[in-house]
Write a structure and sequence with these properties.
single chain, Rossmann fold, 563 residues, 17-stranded mixed beta sheet, alpha/beta, Jelly Rolls, 13 helices
Length: 563
Protein backbone atom coordinates (compact mmCIF):
# COMPACT_ATOMS: atom_id res chain seq x y z
CA UNK A 1 0.00 0.00 0.00
CA UNK A 2 1.18 3.58 -0.62
CA UNK A 3 2.88 5.35 2.27
CA UNK A 4 0.41 7.73 4.04
CA UNK A 5 3.27 10.19 4.60
CA UNK A 6 3.76 10.35 0.83
CA UNK A 7 0.06 11.03 0.34
CA UNK A 8 0.08 13.80 2.95
CA UNK A 9 3.24 15.37 1.52
CA UNK A 10 1.79 15.33 -2.00
CA UNK A 11 -1.37 17.04 -0.75
CA UNK A 12 0.58 19.62 1.27
CA UNK A 13 2.75 20.46 -1.75
CA UNK A 14 -0.34 20.70 -3.98
CA UNK A 15 1.22 18.36 -6.51
CA UNK A 16 -0.76 17.36 -9.61
CA UNK A 17 -3.03 14.44 -8.77
CA UNK A 18 -1.84 10.93 -9.40
CA UNK A 19 -2.50 7.52 -7.92
CA UNK A 20 0.65 6.75 -5.88
CA UNK A 21 1.80 3.19 -6.06
CA UNK A 22 3.74 1.09 -3.55
CA UNK A 23 7.45 1.79 -3.14
CA UNK A 24 10.21 -0.79 -2.61
CA UNK A 25 13.28 0.58 -0.80
CA UNK A 26 16.78 -0.94 -0.93
CA UNK A 27 19.32 0.79 1.31
CA UNK A 28 23.13 0.89 1.45
CA UNK A 29 23.66 -0.66 -1.96
CA UNK A 30 27.39 -0.77 -2.85
CA UNK A 31 28.26 1.08 -6.07
CA UNK A 32 31.93 0.62 -6.85
CA UNK A 33 33.86 3.53 -8.38
CA UNK A 34 36.75 3.00 -10.81
CA UNK A 35 39.33 3.23 -8.04
CA UNK A 36 37.55 0.62 -5.91
CA UNK A 37 35.88 3.04 -3.49
CA UNK A 38 32.36 1.92 -2.53
CA UNK A 39 29.65 4.60 -2.76
CA UNK A 40 26.66 3.80 -0.57
CA UNK A 41 23.37 4.20 -2.40
CA UNK A 42 19.64 3.94 -1.65
CA UNK A 43 17.15 2.88 -4.31
CA UNK A 44 13.45 3.74 -4.17
CA UNK A 45 11.71 1.63 -6.81
CA UNK A 46 8.18 2.09 -8.19
CA UNK A 47 5.96 -0.90 -8.78
CA UNK A 48 5.82 -0.32 -12.56
CA UNK A 49 8.02 -1.30 -15.50
CA UNK A 50 9.91 1.07 -17.79
CA UNK A 51 10.22 3.85 -15.23
CA UNK A 52 12.84 6.60 -15.67
CA UNK A 53 15.47 7.27 -13.02
CA UNK A 54 16.23 10.37 -10.96
CA UNK A 55 19.75 10.53 -9.50
CA UNK A 56 20.67 12.58 -6.44
CA UNK A 57 24.28 12.63 -5.19
CA UNK A 58 24.80 14.28 -1.81
CA UNK A 59 27.38 14.80 0.96
CA UNK A 60 24.66 15.42 3.58
CA UNK A 61 23.42 11.91 4.30
CA UNK A 62 20.49 10.06 2.74
CA UNK A 63 17.88 10.53 5.46
CA UNK A 64 15.50 13.32 6.39
CA UNK A 65 14.19 15.37 3.46
CA UNK A 66 15.94 13.15 0.91
CA UNK A 67 14.11 10.11 2.22
CA UNK A 68 10.83 11.94 1.67
CA UNK A 69 11.90 13.01 -1.81
CA UNK A 70 12.90 9.46 -2.70
CA UNK A 71 9.47 8.18 -1.72
CA UNK A 72 7.69 10.98 -3.57
CA UNK A 73 9.60 10.27 -6.76
CA UNK A 74 9.02 6.53 -6.60
CA UNK A 75 5.35 6.87 -5.67
CA UNK A 76 4.95 9.02 -8.76
CA UNK A 77 6.45 6.40 -11.06
CA UNK A 78 10.21 6.99 -11.08
CA UNK A 79 13.22 5.19 -9.71
CA UNK A 80 14.95 7.42 -7.16
CA UNK A 81 18.65 6.72 -6.64
CA UNK A 82 20.19 8.65 -3.75
CA UNK A 83 23.92 8.27 -3.26
CA UNK A 84 26.32 9.59 -0.63
CA UNK A 85 29.38 11.29 -2.08
CA UNK A 86 32.67 9.58 -1.23
CA UNK A 87 33.80 10.12 2.32
CA UNK A 88 30.25 10.90 3.53
CA UNK A 89 27.19 8.96 4.65
CA UNK A 90 29.00 5.63 4.85
CA UNK A 91 30.67 5.85 1.42
CA UNK A 92 34.35 4.98 1.28
CA UNK A 93 37.23 7.30 0.53
CA UNK A 94 37.79 10.88 1.64
CA UNK A 95 35.49 13.79 0.84
CA UNK A 96 37.30 16.44 -1.19
CA UNK A 97 34.85 19.05 -2.46
CA UNK A 98 34.36 18.99 -6.25
CA UNK A 99 37.31 16.66 -6.90
CA UNK A 100 35.61 13.31 -7.55
CA UNK A 101 32.09 14.28 -8.56
CA UNK A 102 32.61 13.99 -12.32
CA UNK A 103 34.26 10.55 -12.22
CA UNK A 104 32.06 9.20 -9.43
CA UNK A 105 28.97 10.47 -11.22
CA UNK A 106 30.05 8.80 -14.45
CA UNK A 107 30.76 5.52 -12.63
CA UNK A 108 27.33 5.67 -11.02
CA UNK A 109 25.72 6.24 -14.42
CA UNK A 110 27.56 3.17 -15.72
CA UNK A 111 26.19 1.19 -12.75
CA UNK A 112 22.67 2.42 -13.56
CA UNK A 113 23.01 1.25 -17.16
CA UNK A 114 23.70 -2.27 -15.91
CA UNK A 115 20.57 -2.47 -13.77
CA UNK A 116 17.67 -4.55 -15.12
CA UNK A 117 15.21 -1.73 -14.39
CA UNK A 118 17.20 0.95 -16.26
CA UNK A 119 15.09 2.55 -19.02
CA UNK A 120 17.75 4.81 -20.55
CA UNK A 121 16.04 7.96 -19.28
CA UNK A 122 17.77 9.99 -16.57
CA UNK A 123 16.82 13.00 -14.49
CA UNK A 124 18.84 14.73 -11.77
CA UNK A 125 17.73 16.73 -8.75
CA UNK A 126 19.95 18.67 -6.39
CA UNK A 127 20.13 21.47 -3.83
CA UNK A 128 23.35 23.41 -3.17
CA UNK A 129 26.31 20.97 -3.32
CA UNK A 130 24.03 18.31 -4.80
CA UNK A 131 23.62 20.69 -7.73
CA UNK A 132 27.39 20.99 -8.20
CA UNK A 133 27.43 17.20 -8.50
CA UNK A 134 24.75 17.50 -11.21
CA UNK A 135 26.76 19.96 -13.28
CA UNK A 136 29.87 17.77 -12.94
CA UNK A 137 28.04 14.94 -14.74
CA UNK A 138 25.45 16.69 -16.92
CA UNK A 139 27.45 17.20 -20.13
CA UNK A 140 28.82 13.63 -20.07
CA UNK A 141 25.35 12.10 -19.59
CA UNK A 142 24.45 13.08 -23.16
CA UNK A 143 21.01 12.29 -24.53
CA UNK A 144 20.15 9.99 -21.64
CA UNK A 145 19.80 13.09 -19.46
CA UNK A 146 16.23 14.31 -19.98
CA UNK A 147 15.76 16.86 -17.15
CA UNK A 148 17.60 18.67 -14.36
CA UNK A 149 16.40 20.41 -11.21
CA UNK A 150 19.10 22.81 -9.96
CA UNK A 151 18.26 24.53 -6.66
CA UNK A 152 20.42 27.29 -5.13
CA UNK A 153 23.48 26.00 -6.93
CA UNK A 154 25.81 26.71 -9.85
CA UNK A 155 28.35 25.08 -12.11
CA UNK A 156 31.26 27.07 -10.65
CA UNK A 157 31.98 27.77 -6.99
CA UNK A 158 35.20 29.71 -7.33
CA UNK A 159 33.58 33.11 -7.96
CA UNK A 160 31.16 32.64 -5.07
CA UNK A 161 33.98 31.62 -2.74
CA UNK A 162 36.02 34.70 -3.67
CA UNK A 163 33.24 37.16 -4.50
CA UNK A 164 34.84 40.47 -5.39
CA UNK A 165 38.23 38.68 -4.96
CA UNK A 166 37.76 38.70 -1.21
CA UNK A 167 36.97 35.48 0.70
CA UNK A 168 33.49 34.32 1.75
CA UNK A 169 34.66 33.48 5.26
CA UNK A 170 31.29 32.95 6.92
CA UNK A 171 30.01 30.65 4.18
CA UNK A 172 33.16 28.56 3.80
CA UNK A 173 33.99 28.11 7.48
CA UNK A 174 30.35 27.50 8.44
CA UNK A 175 30.09 24.85 5.71
CA UNK A 176 33.35 23.23 6.82
CA UNK A 177 32.04 23.08 10.38
CA UNK A 178 28.70 21.66 9.19
CA UNK A 179 30.42 18.86 7.26
CA UNK A 180 32.64 18.03 10.22
CA UNK A 181 29.60 17.99 12.52
CA UNK A 182 28.26 15.00 10.58
CA UNK A 183 31.12 12.96 12.03
CA UNK A 184 30.49 13.78 15.72
CA UNK A 185 27.96 12.10 18.04
CA UNK A 186 24.42 13.38 17.70
CA UNK A 187 24.07 14.51 21.32
CA UNK A 188 27.34 16.44 21.21
CA UNK A 189 26.16 18.22 18.08
CA UNK A 190 22.81 19.14 19.63
CA UNK A 191 24.58 20.55 22.68
CA UNK A 192 26.83 22.69 20.48
CA UNK A 193 23.81 24.03 18.57
CA UNK A 194 21.95 24.75 21.81
CA UNK A 195 24.92 26.79 23.03
CA UNK A 196 24.85 28.89 19.84
CA UNK A 197 27.98 27.33 18.28
CA UNK A 198 30.47 29.35 20.35
CA UNK A 199 33.46 27.58 18.79
CA UNK A 200 32.38 28.64 15.31
CA UNK A 201 31.75 32.20 16.48
CA UNK A 202 35.25 32.33 17.99
CA UNK A 203 36.77 30.90 14.81
CA UNK A 204 35.13 33.53 12.63
CA UNK A 205 36.95 36.21 14.66
CA UNK A 206 40.27 34.36 14.76
CA UNK A 207 43.53 35.22 13.01
CA UNK A 208 45.35 33.81 11.22
CA UNK A 209 42.60 32.25 9.15
CA UNK A 210 44.77 29.16 8.64
CA UNK A 211 44.00 28.22 12.26
CA UNK A 212 40.27 28.98 12.11
CA UNK A 213 39.21 25.46 11.07
CA UNK A 214 40.95 23.98 14.12
CA UNK A 215 39.34 26.57 16.39
CA UNK A 216 35.89 25.74 14.99
CA UNK A 217 36.17 21.95 14.85
CA UNK A 218 39.31 20.82 16.65
CA UNK A 219 40.79 19.36 13.45
CA UNK A 220 42.49 20.60 10.30
CA UNK A 221 40.14 20.56 7.30
CA UNK A 222 42.20 20.06 4.13
CA UNK A 223 39.90 21.83 1.67
CA UNK A 224 39.64 24.90 3.94
CA UNK A 225 43.42 25.15 3.98
CA UNK A 226 43.57 24.70 0.21
CA UNK A 227 40.96 27.39 -0.43
CA UNK A 228 42.97 29.82 1.67
CA UNK A 229 46.13 29.08 -0.33
CA UNK A 230 44.68 28.97 -3.86
CA UNK A 231 42.70 32.20 -3.82
CA UNK A 232 44.16 34.11 -6.77
CA UNK A 233 42.13 34.29 -10.02
CA UNK A 234 44.81 32.45 -11.99
CA UNK A 235 45.15 29.57 -9.52
CA UNK A 236 45.35 26.27 -11.44
CA UNK A 237 43.78 24.52 -8.43
CA UNK A 238 40.25 25.55 -9.51
CA UNK A 239 40.43 24.50 -13.15
CA UNK A 240 39.32 20.94 -12.47
CA UNK A 241 36.88 21.98 -9.75
CA UNK A 242 34.53 24.17 -11.77
CA UNK A 243 32.25 22.97 -14.55
CA UNK A 244 31.21 26.25 -16.17
CA UNK A 245 32.77 25.23 -19.50
CA UNK A 246 30.38 22.25 -19.65
CA UNK A 247 27.12 24.16 -19.21
CA UNK A 248 26.65 25.10 -22.88
CA UNK A 249 26.90 21.42 -23.83
CA UNK A 250 23.86 20.46 -21.78
CA UNK A 251 20.75 20.01 -23.90
CA UNK A 252 18.39 18.68 -21.24
CA UNK A 253 15.74 21.12 -19.97
CA UNK A 254 16.74 22.67 -16.64
CA UNK A 255 14.66 24.38 -13.98
CA UNK A 256 16.59 26.72 -11.69
CA UNK A 257 15.16 27.65 -8.29
CA UNK A 258 16.89 30.24 -6.15
CA UNK A 259 16.34 33.21 -3.84
CA UNK A 260 17.24 36.88 -3.89
CA UNK A 261 19.34 36.40 -0.75
CA UNK A 262 21.05 33.18 -1.82
CA UNK A 263 24.84 32.91 -1.67
CA UNK A 264 25.06 31.46 -5.22
CA UNK A 265 22.55 33.74 -6.98
CA UNK A 266 25.00 35.63 -9.27
CA UNK A 267 26.72 32.38 -10.33
CA UNK A 268 23.40 30.64 -10.96
CA UNK A 269 22.25 33.52 -13.14
CA UNK A 270 25.52 33.19 -15.09
CA UNK A 271 24.56 29.57 -15.82
CA UNK A 272 21.11 30.74 -16.86
CA UNK A 273 22.65 33.18 -19.35
CA UNK A 274 24.92 30.48 -20.78
CA UNK A 275 22.03 28.07 -21.34
CA UNK A 276 19.97 30.81 -23.00
CA UNK A 277 22.84 31.70 -25.33
CA UNK A 278 23.32 28.00 -26.18
CA UNK A 279 19.68 27.69 -27.23
CA UNK A 280 18.48 25.70 -24.23
CA UNK A 281 16.68 28.32 -22.13
CA UNK A 282 15.87 27.04 -18.64
CA UNK A 283 12.93 27.92 -16.44
CA UNK A 284 14.01 30.34 -13.71
CA UNK A 285 12.24 30.80 -10.38
CA UNK A 286 13.54 33.37 -7.89
CA UNK A 287 11.70 33.89 -4.63
CA UNK A 288 12.09 35.83 -1.37
CA UNK A 289 14.30 33.09 0.06
CA UNK A 290 17.67 32.56 1.66
CA UNK A 291 19.89 29.53 1.10
CA UNK A 292 18.25 27.23 3.63
CA UNK A 293 14.85 28.78 4.23
CA UNK A 294 11.79 26.52 4.61
CA UNK A 295 9.99 28.35 1.81
CA UNK A 296 12.80 27.47 -0.56
CA UNK A 297 12.53 23.77 0.35
CA UNK A 298 8.80 23.72 -0.40
CA UNK A 299 9.26 25.62 -3.67
CA UNK A 300 12.09 23.31 -4.73
CA UNK A 301 9.95 20.21 -4.24
CA UNK A 302 6.93 21.71 -5.96
CA UNK A 303 8.84 23.16 -8.91
CA UNK A 304 11.19 20.18 -9.24
CA UNK A 305 8.52 17.50 -9.21
CA UNK A 306 6.36 19.46 -11.64
CA UNK A 307 9.37 19.86 -13.95
CA UNK A 308 10.04 16.14 -13.89
CA UNK A 309 6.36 15.45 -14.57
CA UNK A 310 6.70 17.59 -17.69
CA UNK A 311 10.11 16.53 -19.01
CA UNK A 312 10.72 13.07 -17.53
CA UNK A 313 7.33 11.37 -17.90
CA UNK A 314 6.78 8.75 -15.28
CA UNK A 315 5.75 5.18 -15.86
CA UNK A 316 2.45 5.15 -14.01
CA UNK A 317 -0.90 3.50 -14.08
CA UNK A 318 -2.40 6.98 -13.79
CA UNK A 319 -0.45 9.47 -15.92
CA UNK A 320 0.13 12.93 -14.48
CA UNK A 321 -2.03 15.35 -16.46
CA UNK A 322 -0.17 18.04 -18.36
CA UNK A 323 -0.66 21.45 -16.82
CA UNK A 324 -0.75 24.80 -18.59
CA UNK A 325 2.47 26.02 -20.17
CA UNK A 326 4.56 27.84 -17.61
CA UNK A 327 6.45 31.05 -18.33
CA UNK A 328 10.24 30.86 -18.59
CA UNK A 329 10.81 33.25 -15.67
CA UNK A 330 8.81 33.48 -12.44
CA UNK A 331 10.11 35.95 -9.86
CA UNK A 332 9.01 37.51 -6.62
CA UNK A 333 9.21 41.30 -6.48
CA UNK A 334 9.91 42.35 -2.90
CA UNK A 335 8.76 45.48 -1.14
CA UNK A 336 5.31 47.01 -0.86
CA UNK A 337 2.99 46.17 -3.76
CA UNK A 338 5.35 43.63 -5.29
CA UNK A 339 4.45 39.93 -5.42
CA UNK A 340 4.96 37.21 -8.00
CA UNK A 341 5.52 38.13 -11.66
CA UNK A 342 5.84 36.12 -14.86
CA UNK A 343 8.45 37.37 -17.33
CA UNK A 344 9.43 36.27 -20.84
CA UNK A 345 13.16 36.49 -20.04
CA UNK A 346 15.79 37.51 -17.52
CA UNK A 347 16.77 40.23 -17.08
CA UNK A 348 13.69 42.13 -18.27
CA UNK A 349 13.94 45.40 -20.19
CA UNK A 350 14.87 48.20 -17.83
CA UNK A 351 16.47 51.65 -17.87
CA UNK A 352 19.78 51.75 -16.00
CA UNK A 353 19.48 54.90 -13.91
CA UNK A 354 22.29 56.38 -11.81
CA UNK A 355 21.49 57.56 -8.31
CA UNK A 356 24.42 59.77 -7.37
CA UNK A 357 26.04 60.15 -4.00
CA UNK A 358 25.73 63.79 -2.99
CA UNK A 359 27.21 66.03 -0.28
CA UNK A 360 25.51 65.98 3.09
CA UNK A 361 24.69 62.29 2.85
CA UNK A 362 22.08 62.78 0.15
CA UNK A 363 21.27 60.39 -2.72
CA UNK A 364 19.63 61.77 -5.84
CA UNK A 365 19.11 61.01 -9.52
CA UNK A 366 20.56 64.37 -10.62
CA UNK A 367 24.31 64.69 -11.39
CA UNK A 368 26.66 65.45 -8.49
CA UNK A 369 27.76 68.96 -7.65
CA UNK A 370 31.15 70.28 -6.57
CA UNK A 371 31.80 68.94 -3.07
CA UNK A 372 34.43 67.82 -0.64
CA UNK A 373 34.88 64.07 -0.06
CA UNK A 374 33.37 62.20 2.87
CA UNK A 375 35.83 60.41 5.13
CA UNK A 376 35.80 57.37 7.37
CA UNK A 377 38.39 55.24 9.09
CA UNK A 378 38.36 51.47 8.67
CA UNK A 379 40.03 49.46 11.42
CA UNK A 380 40.34 45.70 10.77
CA UNK A 381 40.83 45.17 14.50
CA UNK A 382 37.20 46.34 14.88
CA UNK A 383 35.85 45.37 11.46
CA UNK A 384 32.55 46.69 10.17
CA UNK A 385 30.12 43.84 10.85
CA UNK A 386 27.92 42.12 8.30
CA UNK A 387 24.20 42.11 8.98
CA UNK A 388 21.77 39.84 7.15
CA UNK A 389 22.00 39.41 3.39
CA UNK A 390 23.12 36.24 1.53
CA UNK A 391 24.44 33.86 4.18
CA UNK A 392 24.60 30.09 4.48
CA UNK A 393 22.59 29.96 7.72
CA UNK A 394 18.97 30.88 7.01
CA UNK A 395 18.27 32.20 10.51
CA UNK A 396 20.87 34.97 10.11
CA UNK A 397 20.29 35.71 6.43
CA UNK A 398 17.93 37.93 4.46
CA UNK A 399 16.54 41.40 5.16
CA UNK A 400 17.18 42.91 8.59
CA UNK A 401 17.00 46.40 10.05
CA UNK A 402 20.41 47.98 9.37
CA UNK A 403 20.20 50.98 11.69
CA UNK A 404 22.61 49.43 14.18
CA UNK A 405 25.43 49.09 11.67
CA UNK A 406 24.59 52.42 9.98
CA UNK A 407 25.18 54.19 13.31
CA UNK A 408 28.85 53.20 13.26
CA UNK A 409 31.41 55.90 12.36
CA UNK A 410 32.99 53.61 9.76
CA UNK A 411 29.81 53.45 7.66
CA UNK A 412 28.78 56.25 5.29
CA UNK A 413 25.14 56.48 4.27
CA UNK A 414 23.49 58.38 1.42
CA UNK A 415 19.71 58.69 1.56
CA UNK A 416 17.18 59.95 -0.97
CA UNK A 417 14.22 62.22 -0.31
CA UNK A 418 10.94 60.39 0.26
CA UNK A 419 9.74 58.96 -3.04
CA UNK A 420 6.71 60.67 -4.56
CA UNK A 421 5.87 57.53 -6.58
CA UNK A 422 6.92 53.88 -6.40
CA UNK A 423 10.26 52.93 -7.92
CA UNK A 424 10.62 49.37 -9.19
CA UNK A 425 14.10 47.89 -9.59
CA UNK A 426 14.38 44.58 -11.49
CA UNK A 427 17.68 43.20 -12.77
CA UNK A 428 21.43 43.44 -12.17
CA UNK A 429 22.58 46.23 -9.84
CA UNK A 430 26.01 47.83 -9.80
CA UNK A 431 27.85 50.77 -8.28
CA UNK A 432 30.81 52.92 -9.21
CA UNK A 433 32.54 54.38 -6.18
CA UNK A 434 35.47 56.80 -6.39
CA UNK A 435 37.77 56.50 -3.39
CA UNK A 436 41.12 57.62 -2.07
CA UNK A 437 42.90 55.63 0.58
CA UNK A 438 46.06 56.06 2.59
CA UNK A 439 46.55 52.29 2.25
CA UNK A 440 46.87 50.48 -1.08
CA UNK A 441 44.98 47.42 0.22
CA UNK A 442 41.32 47.94 1.04
CA UNK A 443 37.78 46.68 0.49
CA UNK A 444 34.77 48.63 -0.77
CA UNK A 445 31.37 47.40 0.38
CA UNK A 446 28.17 48.88 -1.05
CA UNK A 447 24.64 48.06 0.11
CA UNK A 448 21.24 49.26 -1.11
CA UNK A 449 18.54 49.60 1.56
CA UNK A 450 14.85 50.51 1.69
CA UNK A 451 14.11 53.04 4.44
CA UNK A 452 10.47 52.75 5.46
CA UNK A 453 8.21 55.42 6.98
CA UNK A 454 9.33 54.42 10.49
CA UNK A 455 13.00 54.95 9.59
CA UNK A 456 13.92 51.27 9.53
CA UNK A 457 16.58 50.48 6.92
CA UNK A 458 16.05 47.08 5.23
CA UNK A 459 18.87 45.64 3.11
CA UNK A 460 17.88 44.84 -0.48
CA UNK A 461 21.16 43.85 -2.17
CA UNK A 462 24.89 44.45 -1.80
CA UNK A 463 28.39 43.62 -3.02
CA UNK A 464 32.06 43.94 -2.08
CA UNK A 465 35.27 44.38 -4.06
CA UNK A 466 38.81 43.83 -2.78
CA UNK A 467 41.28 46.47 -3.99
CA UNK A 468 44.97 45.77 -4.56
CA UNK A 469 47.51 48.12 -6.19
CA UNK A 470 47.49 46.28 -9.52
CA UNK A 471 43.69 46.00 -9.94
CA UNK A 472 42.57 49.64 -10.16
CA UNK A 473 44.99 52.34 -11.36
CA UNK A 474 44.56 55.78 -9.74
CA UNK A 475 43.79 58.94 -11.68
CA UNK A 476 45.91 62.09 -11.51
CA UNK A 477 44.32 63.03 -8.17
CA UNK A 478 45.06 59.65 -6.64
CA UNK A 479 41.42 58.54 -6.78
CA UNK A 480 40.41 55.00 -7.72
CA UNK A 481 37.21 54.23 -9.63
CA UNK A 482 35.94 50.97 -8.13
CA UNK A 483 33.18 49.10 -10.00
CA UNK A 484 31.15 47.09 -7.48
CA UNK A 485 28.70 44.45 -8.78
CA UNK A 486 25.83 43.99 -6.32
CA UNK A 487 23.51 40.99 -6.09
CA UNK A 488 20.70 41.23 -8.66
CA UNK A 489 17.29 42.06 -7.26
CA UNK A 490 13.60 42.61 -7.93
CA UNK A 491 12.20 45.15 -5.51
CA UNK A 492 9.51 47.82 -5.39
CA UNK A 493 10.28 50.89 -3.27
CA UNK A 494 6.97 52.34 -2.11
CA UNK A 495 5.97 55.98 -2.30
CA UNK A 496 7.02 57.69 0.92
CA UNK A 497 10.00 55.33 1.38
CA UNK A 498 13.60 56.39 0.76
CA UNK A 499 16.51 54.73 -0.98
CA UNK A 500 19.70 54.44 1.04
CA UNK A 501 23.22 53.46 -0.01
CA UNK A 502 25.81 52.32 2.51
CA UNK A 503 29.52 52.59 1.71
CA UNK A 504 32.10 51.13 4.08
CA UNK A 505 35.30 49.12 4.26
CA UNK A 506 34.01 45.60 4.86
CA UNK A 507 31.26 43.26 6.06
CA UNK A 508 32.79 40.82 8.55
CA UNK A 509 32.57 37.85 8.93
CA UNK A 510 30.57 37.41 5.73
CA UNK A 511 33.75 38.47 3.96
CA UNK A 512 37.18 38.07 5.54
CA UNK A 513 38.43 41.37 6.91
CA UNK A 514 41.05 43.16 4.83
CA UNK A 515 44.12 43.52 7.07
CA UNK A 516 45.37 46.48 5.04
CA UNK A 517 48.84 44.99 4.64
CA UNK A 518 48.65 42.78 1.54
CA UNK A 519 49.72 39.74 3.59
CA UNK A 520 48.60 36.31 2.30
CA UNK A 521 44.97 35.46 3.02
CA UNK A 522 45.60 32.52 5.31
CA UNK A 523 48.56 33.82 7.31
CA UNK A 524 47.80 37.55 7.75
CA UNK A 525 47.94 38.66 11.39
CA UNK A 526 49.11 42.30 11.18
CA UNK A 527 46.18 44.74 11.10
CA UNK A 528 46.55 48.29 9.77
CA UNK A 529 43.78 50.83 10.10
CA UNK A 530 43.47 53.54 7.48
CA UNK A 531 41.41 56.48 6.25
CA UNK A 532 39.18 56.37 3.19
CA UNK A 533 37.71 59.22 1.21
CA UNK A 534 34.57 58.75 -0.88
CA UNK A 535 34.41 61.33 -3.68
CA UNK A 536 31.18 62.58 -5.27
CA UNK A 537 31.97 65.56 -7.47
CA UNK A 538 31.49 66.04 -11.24
CA UNK A 539 34.93 64.56 -11.95
CA UNK A 540 34.27 61.61 -9.62
CA UNK A 541 30.54 60.81 -9.93
CA UNK A 542 30.08 58.01 -7.42
CA UNK A 543 26.73 56.38 -8.05
CA UNK A 544 24.51 53.36 -7.66
CA UNK A 545 23.15 52.25 -11.04
CA UNK A 546 19.69 50.74 -10.79
CA UNK A 547 17.69 48.90 -13.49
CA UNK A 548 14.45 50.88 -13.21
CA UNK A 549 11.22 49.33 -14.43
CA UNK A 550 8.37 51.86 -14.59
CA UNK A 551 4.84 50.80 -13.80
CA UNK A 552 3.42 53.47 -16.13
CA UNK A 553 3.93 52.36 -19.77
CA UNK A 554 3.79 56.00 -20.91
CA UNK A 555 7.04 56.59 -19.01
CA UNK A 556 8.92 53.56 -20.35
CA UNK A 557 7.36 51.71 -23.29
CA UNK A 558 10.10 49.05 -23.22
CA UNK A 559 8.68 47.68 -19.98
CA UNK A 560 5.01 47.18 -20.90
CA UNK A 561 5.45 43.40 -20.92
CA UNK A 562 5.65 43.49 -17.11
CA UNK A 563 2.14 44.90 -16.71
Amino acid sequence: MPDPVTRLASAALRLPPTRPGPVRVSRDLPVRARDGVVLRTDHYAPAVHGAPTVLIRTPYGRGGPLRLLGRLLAARGRHAVIQSCRGTGGSGGTFAPLVHERDDGADTLDWLRRQPWWSGQLGMFGVSYQGFAQWALAADAGEELRAMVAVVTASATRDSTYAGESFALDTVLTWAELLHAQTVPWLARQWELKRGQPRLATALEHLPLADADRVATGVTIPFFQEWLRHHTPQAAYWRSRVFADQVAKVRAPVVMVTGWHDIFLPAQLDDHAVLRAAGTPPRLVIGPWTHGSPGLFVAALREGLAWLDEHLPAASRTPVPAGPARPPVHIYVGGAGGGWRDLPDWPPPAVETPWHLQPGGELAAHPPVASTPDTFRYDPADPTPSLGGPLLVAQRAGPVDNRRVEARPDVLTYTSAPLTAPVEVVGPVRAEIHVRSDLPYLDVFVRLCDVDRRGRSWNVCDGLVRVTPERFPPDSSGALRIPVPLWPTAYRFAAGHRLRVQVCGGAHPRWARNPGTGEPLGTAVTLRAGWRQVLHDPAHPSALLLPIVHSDPRQSPVCTDLL
